[in-house]
Records
---
Amino acid sequence: KLNVGVDTVQHGVEGLTYLLTESSKLMISETDFQDSIHVLGFSDELNKLLLQLYLDNRKEIRSILGELTPKLPSYHNLEWRLDVQLASRSLRQQIKPAVTIKLHLNQHEDQTAQVLQTDPSTLLHLIQQLEQALGEMKTNHCRRIVRNMK
């Protein structure tokens, strides 16, 4: 009916979908949206229709995108205990420390608990890796990625 190829229609739909989802993710204002589509060279009437389509559907698009994100467990509480074995029948003078951690998590309104046990050197290595990851989050590259994910 349109007298155009299937690829042209498919690319048009994909482009429109991309434009609306990215604009909704970033919650850009009307003027920013108009500036973005003005560059595409469409007529003023089509630009107004696209703007109205964006304004009418951006909340719904954001809610759908929110539902598509994975629901990961979140932190609720942490309990820990340090156990030290000072001697055994065969070795009277030994020190064998162990750290036991009980991690309480919330997932879909349910609380779960994970019990972990490790030695202090592995725990120190884990702490260093987490601190390094937190330091990475402060870089401009990661900030840009996180900003675009919201």
Note: The chain has three domains: 4-66, 71-117, 121-149.
---
Amino acid sequence: NNNAENPSCAGIDGVLESYLQSLRTVQLYGPTNFAPVINQVAGAAAQVTDGSQYHVLLIITDGVISDMLQTKEAIVSASALPMSIIIVGVGPAEFEG
């Protein structure tokens, strides 16, 4: 949501609001590195030990992942945490890899 101090969105309405705001303010360019954001959300998810929260990371990208090995490692590391990762590719890039 472009807020480093409080990067969470509340519900689908918060996700949509953040997405619409990002469309107006974010300039898309490469490289496309996912591991850092996955690790950041995984760190927040690891803080929750009582089952009271579940994190959903939605990544919308117009580029092919540049750090594929690190992204795979981050996903595997996060797989036991209370979180899901959704990656949506948009545009003409080749997302087959």
Note: Helices lie at 11-25, 35-46, 68-78.
---
Amino acid sequence: VAAGIKYVDGEEAKKLVTEEGYSVVDVRDKSQFDRAHIKPSTHVPLFTVNTDGDISTSIRRVMHNGFAGLFYGIAFTKPNSNFVADVERSFSKDSKLLLVCQEGLRSGQAAEKLEEAGFRNLAFIDNGLQKVKPDLFATEGPKQLQDAGKAGLVTIQGQFSVVLGAILVSAYLFLTLFPTQAEELFFKK
């Protein structure tokens, strides 16, 4: 990232917004933004949902939706070709902008794109919203900022692990405490 872009943590980001007049630009996809976002913020996604219908995209979509989409709840996206223009519609190039995303990767890319386009007062949370302390910012949405990136099966992983662990412990105890019955049930033909 270029030297003119400020890397900040959550506490520094809060000061930029409250004391220095930075506006928050959230560059995450719509699903993450809807789960939780800083209030107020402007949503300008760096990536948009990919609905292209070519065969290569269709194959990648099926693979994505079968793994990352299902397990992590991550949308199948492509770069937003209108990103810079969308930001320019809402902000002048002299505006102070704090770019945010879940892990800090997209907001860093967004800062570079905006700097190349002539924006000069840019900052981003280098570890993303996932590392911001709870209740540091006023938020909107049903989740905490730290959890807005979590969706899909990963959100039930904890409950699944508890159930699976209980089943395995029960099976072990049954095998240990009732070896004769276990052998008759499971090992005799």
Note: The chain is about 45% helix and 15% strand.
